[in-house]
Each structure stands twice: as C-alpha cells, then as structure tokens.
C-alpha cells in the first residue's frame, strides 16, 4: 500500500489536463502507440471535441521512479465544469493528492480555485504544476505568484512542464510519488468502498468505479449498497490500465471497477458507499448527496412522429447519466415532449447535442428555467419546473427563487464591469478580496439570472478573463411574475417566462422585440405581445410579406430553381407550426438571446 | 382487405394491372423544342449567373457551329420520328455570331429533324451597334423572333448593370429589328434596379411599351449566387417600393394590351413565346451547346431524362461525347418539377396535361392539390388547376407543398 498514489488533476478547460494524462500513460506504457489515440480518457466524441470531461474515469499505471521503486499510480479523472461540482468533490474524496495544473500563459481561473479549496477541505495534498511553459506568452513566475496569492499554497518551485512536448513530465512523476502521501486504511476492516462514478455498459450492465477506503472486496462476494440496502454478487473486479483488467480483488487504498449485475446506474449513485453483506461497515462514508437538477427545459420533437424515438433516446441517455430527469410534457404550441431536468446549462447543452447528434432527433428546446418554490394560499409548497405551471396570482402566498453563491475571479481592469453586471443581475456582494492582480468576488444572486445569459455576459464584459463557479445556497422569497407571450392573440405556453416584477416590463419588451427579429415575415401580419395576467405590456408586429416568388426563369435548367426552393424548404424544416404561423426554433430561446446594451 | 389478401383472392392479371397504375406511362409524348446555347458575351454582367464567358479576340465560330451540329446528330436517336415545335438560340450573346454561321446551323437542323415552316425561331440579341447591322442577315437566315436584352432605358442604370449599350442604342436596335422584318420582338426589362425610384421604374416600362413590342419580359432584379452583385450587393429599393412598382407596372401593361401569362412574361394576343411555354408546360427540349440543359421523354421505356452538356466552351468543343451529366427523373420528382414549371403559368394546367406530360396518374397529386386549395393557394375548375391570387404571389410556398419527401 505504501507504493500506491491516488491523485486527481485540477485544471481549467484547455489548461492541458488530458494531454498530461496522455503523457503519463505513455511514459508508464499503459498503451501501445497504436492504441494511444490522442486523449484517451475523454472517450465520448463530444468530450474530445469540446475538451470537457463529462464522465469521471480512471487509469492505473505502474511507474518505476528514479528511486528505483515501482509505484502504482491511480489517476482519477474529474468532470471539468461548474455543473458537476458534486461529482468533482467525490472524485477528489477518492484521492490523497491533486495536481493543480495551471496554464503558465493564462493564470488561475475561478473553477480551479473552487476545486482546489474543495481538495484542501478534504485534506488532499495539492501540488501546483505550470503547464505550457514552452509557449512564448508563458510567464511562470507571475503565475506561480498568482497561485500563492489566490490559493495560498507554496508554488515558487512548482513543476514546470510542457505536456505537449513532454518536457518535465518525468520530473513531475518523480515529484508526485514523493509529495503525495500513500493511502491509509486497514485491509482487514469491514469494507467501505466509495463510488466515484458508474456507467452503463450494454454487455455487462453497470460498471462502478470505486476507491476502497478500507477492507477488501473479492470476486463472488456479496456486496451491499449502503444507501439502498440492496445487495449484489460481485461478478468481476479489476482496474483500468486504461483497458479494463480483472484483478480478482481490490483492497484498501486501491481504485478500480466492480461489475455486479446492477441494471441501473441509479442503484450505484456517485458518493454512495459499498460494503459487504456478511460483514458490513457500521456507517457509510460521509458526504453522500442525492443530486438535484437545478435547471429545467422543455424539449419537443419537431416531427410529432419522433416522440417515441425521443423517449427511447432519453431512456438510453439516462442509463449513463443519473442526473438527468425527465417527465412527459404537453404544450399546446409544441405538442408532446418532455420536461427535462439538468444540473446546469452545460449539462443541458451536452444532452441536447447528444440527442441531436447520436440519435438524429430534430428538437425544439424551450428557454431553460430554474425551479421555483411556490407557497399557495392553502399552505401547500409546490416546486415549479415550468413557468406555465405557475398557479393564478390569487392562489399564491409567496414565490421563492433559488439563490446561488457565485465565486468570480477577475483581473482588476475588469472589476468595474463585472460588479455592474452582478448588480444588474440582482446580485448582493458578500465578499471581495484582492489577490495579486486578480480580485476574488463573492456574490449571492438569483439562479434564474445566471441561467439566462450570465456566463456569456461575464465573458464578454471581461474579455474572457473572468472565471466563475457557483453553489446552490437556498430558496428565497422574491416578487416574481409570469410574463406570457401571445402570438396572434393566443398564448404560447412554451414561451412563458417568470421574471422579477421590477424588470418584467423590460424583459417582456425585449423578448417581443427579439421574437420580431426571429420570426420571418409570412403571408400575413403576425402580432407578438407580452402580457402579465390580462395586462398587455409590449406589442410588436411582423409585417406580412408581399410575395414569395422567383422572378427569373432559368429556362431549361430546372436544377437551379429546385435548389433555391429546396433551400427555402429546408429553412422551414426547423420551424414549428403554431396555428397558421411558422415559428423558427431559435424563437423559443428568444428569452436567452435578448441583446444587451 | 390487406394487400396480402388481395393476392390470394384475385387473379394474377388484375394484381398486375393495379400495379401498372403506379408505373409511369406515356400515351402521347409532349411537344419537342430545341435550345441552342452560345456561351460568349463581350463581357460578363454583374447580375448574370448564366453560362457565359467573355469573348476573346476571335470567336471559334465555325468550329462551334460544327460542334453544335455534331451534338444534335448524337442526340437524334433519342427523338426519332418527332418534330420540333420551336427553336431558341440563347446565351451569352448569340448575336455576336455572324448571320452566315447561324444560317449554316439552321440549315443543318432543318435537314436533321423535321421543322414546320412557320415554327418560332427565337434569338437573343444585345442592342449594341455592332449587332444591329446584322439583324437583316439574321432574319434572312430564318430567325423570326428577336429577344432584345434592353434591361433599362435609363443610361445611369444601364451603366450600373454593367451593360455596354445606351438607351439610344436600344431604341435604334428595336427600330432596326422592325425594319429587318421582325414582327415578333421581345424586350427584356428589369425592375427593382439599384436606387431605382417608383417613377423611374414606371418610366422605364413606359418607354418599353412605347416601342410596341409583341412581348415583354418584365422581371425583378434578383441577386443570384455566383455573381458580382451577390458578393458586393448594390443598394436595392425596399420591398414596399418594389411592391408598389410591380402593382402599377402590371396595371400599365394590362392597360396597353399586354396580358400576363407567366410570372414575368407579358404578351399581346397571339405573341406568347411558344418556346418558353413549352418549358413551363413540362414539354420536352433538346439542348445543344456549352452548358445547355435538355429534357427528353421516351415512349419505349416511359422514362424522362435530363442532361447537361459540358460547360466550358473549350471542353465542349473538344469532347467527343458532348454530354457531361444526365439523370432520369424519379416519379416523385416528376410531379414536383411539373408543378414547379406549370404553376408559373397564369392559366395553370389541366389534369389531362399533367397525366400526358408526366406519364403519371392524377391520383398522385390530388391529395396535395386538395391541401393547397384548402390553404387558399390553389384554385380548381373542373380539371383546370391554377394558382389562386394569393398562391401566385406566394408561388414558392405553393410549389413547396409538392416537395417530394414530405408525407402527404
């Protein structure tokens, strides 16, 4: 056990986590060159394309260090986005140390800071690493200073590497085995295995990635999931090298997989504890939480015939994504679809993209909303996932909206812009701290404002330099109203929004104006209105087209005329018929697309 | 009754018969025209996306005529026993060619394929001085209809359009054409030109009407991909102004006895362009010349073939086989392409004509026609179908209802 090292890498997107991991695998001979497809760990196309890790994975490597000993390294990859902070904390919990990888040309970003604090809270040894030092813009001294200022760990003699060229990687590995402590835990104690992640494999069922905190797990033993009390017979245990390699047993300190005939990933939730049925641990590992979706959006197939395919696709995605929740939804405007719950905006984008790409579905997504709590006059408390479900005003005692704590890191030059953005978004400052050239800001703000366009705006007002991380705090009462959007005097349920009373007029106006831009002119006038209750607060008209006809005749060449018409026709495919009016897909997201002055 | 049940209970020949109803079949072939493409112009206009090439010092006139004749000879087997109903020589600028060359060409055509004596033979001409002198010769060669690319009678606008003639030259050319004996003259006039006012647009049209041609093609300037105007768009009048101009212009044309019979075509009685009518009615046409497109139906296998000749003049001249691409029109595309063309005609089409020219049963479009009628885009009287008033303004929307891959 003294030669085992369990570690994670904390890094911002694009700071080079996957490339460093690839180097480690290469140096330790985990894969032949032929198998060494670039960035092995990000196995989904989408992950590779976006450079974001969605599922946690691990790899076990044997490294012969310069002290002559062979070390067993377990690298646990972590999901890399604010939406997945709970998953990240569980991955970190499975480690004794973490490498903080920072791009030497860019500096520290908020997400890394948040993850670093989590790691330090969990008692991990955090080891700074400066990557991309071969770039002309690299400024290792400044960045090292920044790490010390912001995170408060020694960084003067941080490892300097270039994962791309391989420079300094061996030194980094040597430093790693020296700095990060070996795991502890009695291999003979009752079993406690922490679930880091689980995913569905069509051949063997659920594969669970675990870290054994204490005890030993062997093939054919009866194991028990502590939160549910359900038990399973272990079919196989082993490690990833990164290929799945059976081992017969996993014992204290090790990281590996379990296959136990589990059918649904719900039964092996991230953060849960596995023990043995015969000799159970008396208590579960701390920190287990049920993940709650925070953002909801309706998704509807453009072609009604696709509804069943859509349901199947969601069922399949859910096999691998315990955070995904969905229930059928019917919209008078969009027909049959699903209301889907996500961890956050990135999670939503990923799911949407996978549905369209992997399952070839043409979907209309409504603007995402957060979950509101409504206390009715009869004293019930309702969770509202969909603005159109909001009860009539006279039945509402109080509406409560989710409040998050936003942690923002921004260079001083952009501080003013960021503060005014936060104020505009109804934020309340709770902390501000100067750290080197950056300022660390903490705000409490309504999550609905964050869901809207906060992230994009933050990037634009800071020219991309600000970084951001958030945590859910609480529900808090607020003056909120429902703004309905009407097209040719009919309410389009899928366009309803919940807005703060003070800004509802402006929001209504903005959405109506944006809709007017997005809905193409058609054969008749289209009236777009925003209303609160029966009171119309904004109105605009898409003027009728005079004609739509190709003036010129191409004589004998029919192909050009056909091409032109086909182009028009394709445009229409992305439209949804609402009464006589054709509404393009983007219009359902108009709420998000409102330009800001 | 399920289809499987039919085959058990019905005699085989009846089953076969009912299948035949879905196979295209020609009882009579549509009329046949001939299109001849001359791909050279003095220079390329910024709005033009036709297959035209700036002419160099010397046009390979003789060689090109030989190539055209050879091209036609190669295509004769596909139209054995049929005769022409019209010829159209387009371009480019065919009037760059000499009358002698065109005479040679037309003589060869008359020897190769039967042509009625009074058949319409159109040639496109530009109103430059150089061309006008040849009008006599063209008429003598057997060309009896001249389509003159005037585009505008406003010198400033002509310049913006990159035309190389002046308004005065255009007027002269029309006069010369009449003197040469042409009784059938078309003027191409555009509207919605860069910075054109309503007044200017009407003046332009009035000037054209004053020349008393039998036929006017009055069409809106559109910016086509692969043109200079498309990549560097000029400032065009807004939709409302164009709409007003179109309304007033159509009234003016009507008032002077020009009946609209197609989206952009207006004619005095009996002066409709037979050649273009044949396109719009989904008729057949042979095509010879660089980049020319043809369509031929056959009675033996009930197929309809579209084909295109090599685009580049030099390649066309050199090639042994002049055709560069061809395909057969699928059943689904037949209905769509028929609609695409025939709904452009103000009078529309009859279901009999649909059956005759597509070889399909009318049942294949009746459902969609019903839909279009319900939407108010199509009107029906007996078997005559035409775009409604709204449908004619939103013709693209109407035609799209017949797009092949949508379920009915």
Describe this structure in words.
The longest helix of chain A is centred in the C-terminal third of the chain and has 18 residues, at 501-518. Chain A contains 13 helices and 34 strands. Chain A is α+β, with helices and mostly antiparallel strands and 597 residues long. The model of chain A is unreliable at 50-54 (pLDDT under 50). Chain B is α/β, with parallel strands linked by helices. In chain B, 41% of the residues lie in helices and 21% in strands. The radius of gyration of chain B is 23 Å and the shape is globular. The longest helix of chain B has 17 residues, at 239-255. In chain B, helix 4 (99-112) packs parallel to helix 6, helix 6 runs parallel beside helix 8 and helix 9 (198-210) packs parallel to helix 11 (239-255). Chain A binds chain B through residues 523, 545-553, 555-562, 565-566, 568-569, 572, and chain B through 35, 49, 88, 90, 219-222, 224, 239-240, 242-243, 262-265, 276, 279-280, 285, 287, 292-295, 306, 308, 336-337, 340-341, 344, 390, 392-397, 399-400, 403.
Provide the gyration radius of chain B in Å.
Answer: 23 Å
Identify low-pLDDT runs of chain B.
Answer: 1-21
Give me the secondary-structure category of chain A: alpha+beta
- The first-to-last residue Cα distance of chain B is 22 Å
Please, what is the CATH homologous superfamily of one domain in chain B? Aldolase class I
The major beta sheet of chain B can be summarized as: 9 strands, mixed
Query: Which parts of chain A are unreliable, with pLDDT below 50 for 5 consecutive residues or more?
Result: 50-54
Coarse morphology of chain A? globular
- The appropriate CATH architecture of one domain in chain B is Alpha-Beta Barrel
What level of helicity do the residues of chain A show?
25-40%
Please report the total strand number of chain B as a whole number: 17
**Discrete helix count of chain A:** 13
Number of strands of chain A: 34
């Amino acid at each position: 056990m003294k030669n085992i090292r369990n570690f994670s890498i904390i890094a911002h997107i694009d700071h080079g986590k996957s490339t460093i991991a690839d180097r480690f695998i290469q140096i330790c001979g985990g894969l032949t060159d032929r198998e060494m497809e670039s960035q092995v760990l990000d196995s989904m196309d989408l992950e590779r394309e976006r450079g974001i890790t969605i599922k946690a994975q691990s790899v076990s490597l044997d490294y012969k260090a310069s002290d002559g000993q062979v070390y067993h390294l377990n690298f646990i990859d972590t999901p890399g986005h604010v939406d997945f902070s709970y998953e990240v904390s569980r991955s970190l919990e499975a480690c004794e140390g973490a490498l903080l990888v920072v791009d030497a040309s860019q500096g520290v970003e908020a997400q890394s800071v948040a993850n670093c604090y989590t790691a330090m809270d969990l008692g991990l040894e955090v080891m700074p690493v400066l990557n991309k030092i071969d770039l002309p813009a690299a400024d290792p001294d400044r960045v090292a200073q920044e790490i010390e200022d912001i995170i408060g760990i020694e960084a003067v003699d941080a490892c300097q590497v270039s994962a791309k060229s391989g420079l300094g990687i061996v030194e980094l590995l040597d430093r790693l085995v020296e700095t990060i402590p070996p795991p502890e835990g009695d291999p003979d104690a009752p079993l406690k295995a922490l679930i880091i992640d689980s995913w569905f494999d069509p051949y063997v069922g659920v594969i669970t990635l675990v870290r054994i905190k204490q005890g030993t797990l062997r093939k054919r033993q009866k194991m028990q999931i502590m939160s549910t009390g359900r038990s399973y017979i272990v079919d196989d245990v082993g490690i990833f090298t990164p290929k799945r390699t059976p081992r017969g047993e996993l014992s204290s300190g090790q990281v590996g997989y379990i296959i136990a005939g589990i059918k649904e990933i719900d039964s092996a939730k991230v953060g849960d504890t596995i023990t043995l049925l015969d000799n159970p641990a008396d208590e579960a590992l701390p920190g287990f939480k049920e993940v709650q979706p925070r953002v909801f959006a309706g998704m509807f197939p453009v072609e009604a015939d696709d509804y069943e395919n859509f349901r199947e696709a969601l069922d399949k995605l859910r096999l691998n994504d315990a955070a995904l929740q969905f229930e059928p939804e019917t919209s008078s405007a969009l027909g049959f679809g699903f209301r889907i719950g996500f961890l956050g905006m990135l999670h939503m984008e990923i799911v949407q993209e996978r549905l369209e790409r992997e399952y070839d579905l043409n979907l209309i997504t409504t603007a995402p909303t957060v979950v509101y709590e409504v206390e009715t006059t009869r004293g019930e408390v309702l969770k509202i996932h969909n603005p159109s479900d909001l009860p009539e005003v006279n039945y509402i005692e109080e509406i409560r909206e989710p409040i998050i704590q936003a942690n923002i890191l921004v260079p001083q030059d952009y501080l003013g812009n960021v503060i005014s953005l936060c104020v505009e978004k109804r934020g309340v400052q709770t902390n501000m701290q100067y750290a080197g050239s950056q300022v660390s800001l903490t705000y409490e703000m309504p999550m609905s404002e964050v869901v809207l366009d906060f992230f994009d705006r933050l990037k634009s007002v800071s020219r991309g330099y600000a970084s951001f991380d958030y945590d859910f705090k609480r529900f808090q009462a607020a003056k909120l109203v429902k703004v309905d959007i009407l097209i040719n005097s009919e309410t389009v349920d899928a366009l309803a929004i919940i807005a703060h009373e003070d800004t509802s007029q402006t929001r209504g106006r903005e959405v109506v104006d944006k809709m007017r831009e997005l809905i193409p002119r058609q054969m008749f006038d289209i009236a777009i209105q925003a209303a609160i209750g029966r009171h119309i607060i904004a109105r605009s008209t898409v003027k009728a087209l005079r004609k739509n006809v190709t003036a010129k005749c191409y004589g004998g060449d029919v192909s050009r005329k056909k091409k032109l018409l086909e182009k028009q026709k394709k445009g229409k495919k992305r439209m949804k018929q609402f009464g006589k009016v054709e509404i393009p897909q983007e219009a359902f997201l108009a709420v998000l697309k409102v330009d800001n002055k | 009754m399920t289809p499987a049940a039919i085959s058990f209970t019905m005699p085989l020949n009846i089953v076969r018969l009912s299948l035949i109803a879905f196979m295209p079949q020609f009882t009579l072939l549509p009329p046949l025209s001939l299109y001849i493409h001359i791909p050279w112009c003095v220079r390329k206009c910024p709005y033009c996306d036709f297959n035209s090439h700036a002419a160099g010092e010397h046009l390979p006139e003789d060689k090109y005529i030989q190539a055209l004749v050879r091209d036609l000879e190669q295509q004769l087997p596909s139209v054995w026993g049929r005769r022409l109903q019209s010829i159209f020589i387009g371009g480019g600028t065919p009037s760059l060619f000499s009358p002698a060359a065109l005479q040679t060409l037309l003589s060869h055509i008359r020897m190769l394929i039967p042509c009625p004596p009074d058949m319409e033979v159109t040639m496109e001409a530009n109103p430059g001085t150089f061309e006008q002198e040849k009008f006599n010769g063209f008429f003598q060669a057997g060309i009896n209809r001249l389509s003159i690319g005037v585009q505008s009678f406003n010198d400033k606008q002509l310049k913006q359009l990159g035309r190389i003639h002046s308004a005065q030259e255009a007027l002269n050319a029309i006069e010369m054409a009449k003197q040469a004996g042409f009784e059938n003259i078309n003027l191409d006039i555009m509207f919605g030109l860069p910075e054109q006012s309503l007044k200017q647009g009407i003046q332009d049209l009035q000037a054209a009407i004053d020349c008393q041609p039998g036929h006017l093609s009055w069409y809106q300037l559109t910016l086509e991909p692969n043109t200079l105007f498309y990549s560097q768009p000029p400032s065009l009048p807004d939709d409302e102004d164009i709409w007003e101009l179109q309304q007033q212009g159509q009234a003016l044309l009507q008032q002077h006895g020009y009946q609209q019979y197609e989206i952009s075509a207006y004619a005095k009685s009996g002066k409709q362009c037979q050649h273009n009518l044949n396109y719009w009615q989904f008729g057949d046409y042979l095509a010879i010349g660089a980049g020319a497109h043809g369509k031929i139906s056959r009675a033996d296998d009930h197929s309809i073939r579209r084909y295109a000749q090599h685009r580049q003049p030099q390649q066309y001249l050199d090639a042994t086989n002049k055709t560069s691409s061809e395909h057969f029109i699928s059943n689904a595309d037949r209905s769509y392409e028929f609609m695409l063309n025939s709904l452009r005609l103000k009078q529309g089409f009859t279901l009999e004509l649909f059956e005759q020219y597509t070889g399909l049963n009318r049942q294949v479009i009746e459902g969609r026609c019903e839909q279009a009628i319900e939407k108010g885009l199509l009107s029906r009287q007996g078997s005559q179908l035409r775009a409604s008033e709204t449908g004619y303004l939103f013709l693209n929307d109407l035609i799209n209802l017949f797009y092949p891959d949508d379920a009915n």
